[in-house]
Design a protein that fits this description.
Blueprint (H helix, E strand, L loop, with lengths): L4 H18 L14 H7 L6 H10 L6 E3 L1 H13 L5 H11 L2 E4 L5 H11 L10 H14 L20 H15 L3 H15 L4 H5 L6 H21 L4
Antiparallel strand pairs: 1-2
C-alpha cells in the first residue's frame, strides 16, 4: 500500500482544501495576493494582454530561470483558447517548445504550456506537468507494477532529449480512473462539485457549461498528486 490510511485521509483533505482555496471567487486573492484559478478561467476567453501574461507567469512561479516575451505568451494563450481542436498529447509538447522567451535557456516549458492549456481549455482533459505530480505518478506506476522500476521513481517522464508529456498524461489519466473508483475520492469530488454549483467559487465555477464537472475532478487529482509528491519527497519509500 503506497500510503497509510491516515496518510491518505490527510492527503485528500489537503487536496480538497486547496481546490476550494484556489477556486474561490475571482475577485479574491490567495497566498500573498495571487489571483485564484477562477481569474484565469474568466480572463482567457477574452483579450489577454502583456501584463496579464506577466501576472500569470509570476503567479505560477514560472519566471525563475527565464525572461519571457510576455506579448508573445499572451498571444499564445489566446491562440490556445481559440484553437478549433486541441490534443493535449500533441499540442502541449508543441506549445512547450514554442513559447517565446527573451533571455534564458531555450528548453521545453512543459509546466507553462500545460498550465496555459488547463485554464484556456477547461473542457479538455489536461494534466499539469509538475515535478511533484510526476513523482506521485511514478510512485503509482511503481506500486501498480509490483514495485518494478525503482530506478525511475525520482525521474521526470522523458529522457535526455526532452520531456515525455504523453507518458505523463497517460499516467495521470490512469490515476484519475483509479481514483474515480475510490469512495473517499468520489465523496470529496462530489462535495466540491455541489458546493461550486451552489456558488462558493463565484459565477465562473457555478456554470457547468463553462466549467464541467471533470475539470473539478481533475483539479482535485492535481492537488492530491501534488501533496503525494510532497510527502514522497520527504520520506523513504
Amino acid at each position: 500500500m503506497p500510503f497509510s490510511p491516515d496518510d491518505r485521509r490527510k492527503l485528500l483533505m489537503k487536496a480538497e482544501q486547496d481546490v476550494r482555496r484556489w477556486c474561490c471567487p475571482r475577485e479574491q486573492r490567495v497566498d500573498r495576493g495571487r489571483p485564484p484559478d477562477t481569474h484565469w478561467l474568466w480572463l482567457f476567453p477574452g483579450q489577454v494582454g502583456e501584463q496579464d501574461a506577466r501576472l500569470f507567469l509570476s503567479t505560477f512561479l514560472l519566471t525563475k530561470f527565464v525572461v519571457w516575451d510576455r506579448a508573445g505568451v499572451a498571444a499564445a494563450i489566446m491562440a490556445t483558447y481559440a484553437a478549433e481542436t486541441f490534443d493535449p498529447c500533441v499540442d502541449i509538447p508543441r506549445l512547450a517548445g514554442e513559447l517565446p522567451i527573451l533571455r534564458g535557456q531555450r528548453r521545453q516549458y512543459s509546466s507553462a504550456a500545460s498550465k496555459i492549456a488547463t485554464f484556456a481549455r477547461p473542457r479538455d482533459e489536461i494534466y499539469i506537468w509538475d515535478r511533484l505530480a510526476s513523482k506521485a505518478a511514478r510512485h503509482r506506476d511503481w506500486v501498480r507494477n509490483d514495485r518494478v522500476g525503482t530506478k525511475h521513481l525520482a525521474k521526470l517522464y522523458g529522457d535526455a532529449v526532452g520531456h515525455d508529456y504523453p507518458a505523463f498524461w497517460r499516467a495521470c489519466a490512469q490515476a484519475r480512473r483509479e481514483e474515480c473508483e475510490k469512495p473517499d475520492f468520489q465523496q470529496a469530488r462530489d462535495r466540491l462539485i455541489a458546493d461550486f454549483r451552489q456558488g462558493i467559487g463565484g459565477a465562473v465555477m457555478a456554470d457547468p457549461d463553462r466549467i464541467p464537472d471533470h475539470f473539478i475532478e481533475r483539479r482535485l487529482l492535481d492537488k492530491l498528486m501534488f501533496w503525494e509528491g510532497t510527502l514522497l519527497e520527504n520520506r523513504l519509500i
